[in-house]
């Protein structure tokens, strides 16, 4: 199971968290967020960590500018981006970077129920889905949704599990990962529950979380 740490903001903190070797590090570009990444540069971190730009209903031009500026290898689309938008973003990226690939992670927010039919048009235009909790904010609401809803997940597209995950969820996560609902769960995404202040992650808490490897039945078979 991969780990994505999202909502990074401070240079020294980015280096400290990168030293823990998460698989993905996320940077949020949303002015209304306390985690908005309004800094000019990201310090040098391991190439193995997939730097991810998080956008909410942003224009393709702005997303592309930030991809070039910060060398993002993935984007997380956290608004109402259409399948056509995802397709166009992939095409524009390919045209400008013929030898590179861009991972597109499309976010869907879940409250009490979810209509999985809505995923279908996105299947061919994005690489991963991310399931977050629906709340008053586009993201970073800080609480979990009922993961049992994912028992009805009809797709084989790998997904990120997100929304309010913290150290308190370790036991629940272990149960989830052993269940059928997690069959296509590719990564766990954490954010506000590992912070001392918005955008400032607590390395000790992350280290403690990382010691739980969250191996699924499939992972165990593979190893
Ligand atoms: O965290 C934010 O402020 C934010 C703002 C706009 C879009 C996304 C945002 N965060 C993303 O929300 C999920 C879940 O966060 P949490 O665990 O509930 O705090 C995560 O992917 C963040 O990237």
TrEMBL record:
<keyword id="KW-0822">Tryptophan biosynthesis</keyword>
<dbReference type="InterPro" id="IPR001240">
    <property type="entry name" value="PRAI_dom"/>
</dbReference>
<keyword id="KW-0028">Amino-acid biosynthesis</keyword>
<dbReference type="InterPro" id="IPR013785">
    <property type="entry name" value="Aldolase_TIM"/>
</dbReference>
<dbReference type="GO" id="GO:0016853">
    <property type="term" value="F:isomerase activity"/>
</dbReference>
<dbReference type="InterPro" id="IPR011060">
    <property type="entry name" value="RibuloseP-bd_barrel"/>
</dbReference>
<feature type="domain" description="N-(5'phosphoribosyl) anthranilate isomerase (PRAI)">
    <location>
        <begin position="4"/>
        <end position="209"/>
    </location>
</feature>
<keyword id="KW-0057">Aromatic amino acid biosynthesis</keyword>
<comment type="pathway">
    <text>Amino-acid biosynthesis; L-tryptophan biosynthesis; L-tryptophan from chorismate: step 3/5.</text>
</comment>
<dbReference type="Pfam" id="PF00697">
    <property type="entry name" value="PRAI"/>
</dbReference>
<protein>
    <recommendedName>
        <fullName>N-(5'-phosphoribosyl)anthranilate isomerase</fullName>
        <ecNumber>5.3.1.24</ecNumber>
    </recommendedName>
</protein>
<comment type="similarity">
    <text>Belongs to the TrpF family.</text>
</comment>
<dbReference type="InterPro" id="IPR044643">
    <property type="entry name" value="TrpF_fam"/>
</dbReference>
<keyword id="KW-0413">Isomerase</keyword>
